[in-house]
């Protein structure tokens, strides 16, 4: 006797869908599309499969995107008439990332980024941009995320990434301008810019640093952290997290962190010099240098190595291929071990 066929998963959060639901559960449909019924199947092909005329349009749209980064990104909006996602030059509400041109497991990058964002939101309760995995007309996966800086009326919130905030540019500081910095200096910048609210913002920043280390995100550079001015109180806050993924799956020999923890390399604690990687004492020292209460730093370090069962359950439900699910879980296990090294018993 055959086992009953399992219901499909929500493309946003992995919940099992009912027979009445298509692609997205009500919660994700609300977060992504304001409750509208939208298909996860795009009506246009991926760039590599596009006809010459469509390929030319892709190139034009790539040039006009106002976002930085190496990976191709396209601006997408939801049509008012058909509730379909379409490429656009202006008025974009979403960012669409196709499979990037990298050597290792390129086809799994959309699922990797989506899983990492879901781990941040569902397991560690970090604020992240709403996102999903969608498919081009030819069936190839892509990563879709809603722009949190775009308001309902189409206006945009003022947002600046940490490269802009620190005044670092490629012209003035060279090709590594977004990497030649430190987490300690980023924290100092937060304290300078947000003197009245720096403690909760620094706490959120420190939690995100720990999460990036846990999942093996070695490309969390200055442009992957931003402040924006919200309409709720007119004040500046850290934006929801974005561009989170386990780069370790695709670049196994890269550095563990995009920027160093400490402003002065000579200040690295003895354990780092001896082991060659960051452990509990390193992050404990960083948290204290950022000005966070010691009890809070310890609590956050305890929390980041917890939730193993919840994290594994989410990995198992993700859209990664089975072999990369195993590797993803192994990265988390290795980082938990590092973050427990030197911790009080």
From TrEMBL:
<dbReference type="InterPro" id="IPR052028">
    <property type="entry name" value="HipA_Ser/Thr_kinase"/>
</dbReference>
<dbReference type="GO" id="GO:0004674">
    <property type="term" value="F:protein serine/threonine kinase activity"/>
</dbReference>
<dbReference type="GO" id="GO:0005829">
    <property type="term" value="C:cytosol"/>
</dbReference>
<protein>
    <submittedName>
        <fullName>Type II toxin-antitoxin system HipA family toxin</fullName>
    </submittedName>
</protein>
<keyword id="KW-0808">Transferase</keyword>
<feature type="domain" description="HipA-like C-terminal">
    <location>
        <begin position="65"/>
        <end position="306"/>
    </location>
</feature>
<comment type="similarity">
    <text>Belongs to the HipA Ser/Thr kinase family.</text>
</comment>
<dbReference type="Pfam" id="PF07804">
    <property type="entry name" value="HipA_C"/>
</dbReference>
<dbReference type="InterPro" id="IPR012893">
    <property type="entry name" value="HipA-like_C"/>
</dbReference>
<keyword id="KW-0418">Kinase</keyword>
């Amino acid at each position: 006797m055959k086992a009953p066929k399992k219901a499909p998963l929500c493309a946003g959060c992995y919940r099992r869908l009912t027979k009445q639901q298509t692609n997205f559960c009500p919660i994700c449909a609300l977060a992504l599309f304001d409750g509208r019924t939208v298909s996860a199947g795009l009506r246009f092909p991926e760039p590599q499969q596009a006809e010459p005329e469509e390929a030319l349009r892709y190139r034009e749209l790539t040039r006009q995107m106002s976002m930085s980064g190496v990976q191709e990104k396209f601006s997408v909006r939801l049509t008012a008439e058909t509730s379909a996602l379409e490429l656009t030059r202006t008025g974009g509400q979403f960012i669409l990332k196709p499979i990037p041109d990298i050597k290792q497991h390129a086809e799994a990058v959309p699922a990797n980024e989506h899983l990492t964002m879901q781990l941040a939101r569902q397991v560690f309760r970090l604020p992240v941009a709403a996102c999903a995995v969608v498919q081009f007309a030819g069936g190839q996966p892509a990563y879709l995320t809603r722009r949190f800086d775009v308001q309902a009326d189409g206006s945009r919130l003022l947002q600046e990434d940490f490269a802009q905030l620190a005044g670092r540019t490629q012209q003035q500081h060279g090709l590594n301008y977004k990497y030649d910095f430190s987490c300690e200096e980023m924290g100092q910048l937060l304290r300078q810019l947000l003197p009245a609210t720096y403690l909760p913002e620094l706490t959120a920043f420190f939690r995100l640093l720990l999460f990036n280390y846990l999942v093996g995100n070695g490309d969390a550079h200055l442009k992957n952290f931003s402040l924006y001015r919200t309409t709720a109180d007119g004040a500046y806050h850290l934006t929801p997290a974005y561009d989170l993924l386990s780069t370790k799956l695709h670049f196994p020999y890269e550095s563990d962190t995009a920027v160093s923890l400490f402003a002065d390399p000579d200040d690295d604690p003895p354990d780092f010099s001896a082991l060659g990687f960051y452990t509990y004492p390193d992050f404990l020292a960083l948290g204290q240098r950022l000005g966070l209460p010691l009890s809070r730093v310890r609590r956050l370090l305890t929390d980041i190595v917890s939730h193993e069962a919840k994290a594994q359950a989410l990995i198992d439900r993700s859209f990664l291929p089975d072999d990369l699910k195993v590797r993803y879980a192994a990265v988390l296990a290795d980082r938990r071990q590092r973050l427990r090294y030197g911790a009080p018993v």
